[in-house]
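One such shown below:

_____
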Amino acid sequence: MSARNYVVNGCNAAAVGLDEATAAMGTADLVWVHLDGNDPKSHDWLNAQGLPNIVVNALVATETRPRTDLVENGAILNMRGPDLEATSFPDMLASVRIWATHGRIISLTMRDLLALETLDEDIMAGKILDPGDLVCVLATAITAELDPDVAELGDVLDDCEEMFDAQNAFTMRRTIARTRAKAIAYRRFVAPQRQALEKLARIEAEWLTDDDRAHLGEAADRAARMAEELEQIRERSALMHEQLTDLRAELIDTRSLVISVVALVFLPLTFLTGLLGMNVDGIPYAHEPWAFAAVCGVSAALAIGVAAYFIRAKWFR
């Protein structure tokens, strides 16, 4: 995981080492220290900064969910977003833990988020001047990168609805199940992320401007829309799964009916041939040359009669 430590003064930003970033805290307009949560040295550095225990514990927690908490003059913010290797981990979205206060941002991740690349570009371009700018850009980037993934889930269901038939039932069931599982995994974090961004926009902090609050509100609205879309995807998936189950059951019933009708057609024939095939004396016309043809004719007549009955009874409709 790449290190990200920046010192910002006005529109000038520079990537620096961890020691230099630590020394610049309190003097620069903005110091952003991004730590690798898998590196034990990151924990040692956090413990040496004199941060409140609740902040340190929130940054290094193993399991997190999106939230915002006001602590002293800063805020703890946890968010979830797509990463470079999302399919290799049980959690579909990687977490970023942030401690934001006046002139300083400390963030920590276990996996690199795609949104961090956007932060790198904007901070070096002089677009990020204070902690509020950084948090807003990160929240906006996360929602922007997650939006196409959510839209893709809806497109998958649209494709399934277009080719909805019994022939594709098995493949569709697997596709719908994967889509529903992914939607549930996304919604688990997207819904509380909306609440976290809304809460952050409402807190009283001098490092958050009205413009920052507006951008946070916009990101929260986008997260709310994605949460609603994910809920619709989950419901649509469940409905399509039920329809596929009904379709398969109807197909099995139809095939069972055909088999039953065929069996009923041959049932009297089986009785007749079994009766005449007994190896006992007294079977009528056993030695007549026309007996075999007569038995075949009677059998054919019985078969046609039984089949005609079922056709007239509309059993095949």
Notes: The two ends are 64 Å apart (CA to CA). The chain has a mean pLDDT of 84.
